[in-house]
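Reference record
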Amino acid sequence: MDDPIDTDRLEEFVAENLDRYGETQGVLPDRLTEFGAQYRDQGHLTREQLYDIAYESSTRSAHHVERNPPERCREVTENVRNVDGDFSMIQLLTGLYGFKAPTASCVLAALSPDRHAVVDTRVWASLDRLGYLDGRKESFDAADYVEMIGPIREIAAETGYSAAAVGYALFAYDAEVREGTLH
């Protein structure tokens, strides 16, 4: 299925791969839902909450979050809610220690799962396999997030799934079809 997927099959593709997502080592959607509720209720995230999100995304780098002053965590996450552009939102979050674009995407997906998705190497590879992107990548910045979120939103619009659900499905698809190691 390394050819672009037929749009008539997109909904089936997302559903099948969402069913597989629980078998992967991906971020737990229920945890992001909890973080999103806290974020919307409080209007910001604390350093401890950001640490927990980072830990869900990448246990190896989560400890870097503790280098951020608590007031900076609050300021950045409050500001993210007042910014419209995807690039600017990711760029703000990546200004915090412990947050590269994939981990920052967890914060946005928690805040607004209809518009945002958790992205990483697996999601990029799936979008490449399906013909939405060209070439593979191993690291990401804010511009790459913008490049990925466009096709993710297209798929979401065509299938009725949230952007976050599409991201999970793309992650699971790569986990299913990738041969060899991730990196």
